[in-house]
Amino acid sequence: MMEFGRAFRVALFGSSHGPEVGATISGVPVGTPIDRDALQADLDRRRPVGRRLATRRREPDALVIDSGVVEGRATGEPIRLHVANVDVRRAGYDEYRIRPRPGHADYPARIRFGADADLSGGGIFSGRMTVGLVAAGSIAGTLLRGRGIESVAFTRSLGGIESPVPDDRPLEEIRRAAAANEVGAVDPDDAAAMERRIGSVRRTGDSLGGVVECRTIGLPVGVGEPFFDSIESEIAHLAFAVPAVKGIEFGSGFRAAQMRGSEHNDAFYWSGGKVSTRTNHAGGILGGLSTGGPLVFRVAIKPTASIALPQETVDLETGAEAVIRVGGRHDPCIVPRAVVVVESVAEFALVDLMLRGGYLP
Length: 361
Ligand SMILES: Cc1cc2nc3c(=O)[nH]c(=O)nc-3n(C[C@H](O)[C@H](O)[C@H](O)COP(=O)(O)O)c2cc1C
Prior knowledge:
Layout: E1 3-4, E2 9-14, E3 20-26, H1 36-46, E4 64-67, E5 69-70, E6 73-74, E7 79-84, H2 94-98, H3 106-113, H4 130-145, E8 150-158, E9 161-162, H5 171-179, H6 188-203, E10 210-217, H7 231-239, E11 245-250, H8 261-264, E12 268-271, E13 274-277, E14 285-286, E15 289-290, E16 295-301, E17 311-314, E18 321-324, H9 335-356
Antiparallel strand pairs: 1-2, 2-3, 3-7, 4-7, 5-6, 8-9, 8-10, 10-16, 11-16, 12-13, 14-15, 17-18
Helix pairs in contact: 1-4, 1-9, 4-9, 7-9
Bound molecules: flavin mononucleotide.
């Protein structure tokens, strides 16, 4: 199932080692400015190039807009866009057909889809599929900023190193600080420690996970389509489409389970004629609807499955047990590259819900 969204829809196509990856995005209001350079800049945030600590697969990710945009504006028809897969090396992946990598999708995908599915480079289970999500999110971001709504994601923890950011830190500052280092953390000392940790774990042939946090400010009150399409449902649905995402929490999340009502409730007060809250344990959502406060969620990203250390697997042809070492070009930690993807899925979900609720265009 490669399509998602109602009023704003994305259909992903391509695969890791096929000719291209991309998306067809429907529901973009006619006349929406589509800034090619801004789209390319968002795609570049996802790329490993320039990151000493990432995969050595070198993909230029040069954006091609095939249709739906004329003279920098959406025509109202579906926007089709893609990037070519250039640095494709199929050699090596044949082994995983027979000896599936622990932690990757090889085993269930091979059983479910059979020998004809192209799982080389991970097939549709590759991080490359997130190109289309980032492009859709980038267009959504333009629509949101036109309404004074801003989202920013950053690395909140990596390899056990926590880097929390105060609630009142301006989003622009968070964005600038997170872009200033390779890991996407806001505090430069924490970022340096994370970089060192990735470097040392990579040398041992292992990998690391972490948490990406996303904040959105400026949302009007009431966005969300309960019962089933609450803000949490829509964001979570999209977040779990991102490969390697294993958990999500909104506001105080799992910590809420240990709190009392008197601690967890966010007291209301008047602030310059507007309703505000003293705290934000709800993460800006009550009853699946936006409260108008900052929307805050965090996703847990698992350590990269493809590691160089020897691991137990099975040989599906001989029925024997086997040991596998995954060579090739893999990210020792997916978290830094997932930052822009998480921001993109939030923006995408919010635009879909705002169109449905009559908040846009
Ligand atoms: C941007 C990005 C890059 C990724 N790069 C790798 C990689 O180099 N090696 C790897 O094993 N997994 C990588 N993944 C994760 C796998 O695609 C994912 O773990 C796999 O499809 C199994 O899905 P699951 O982890 O959601 O269960 C990446 C994910 C993202 C979002």
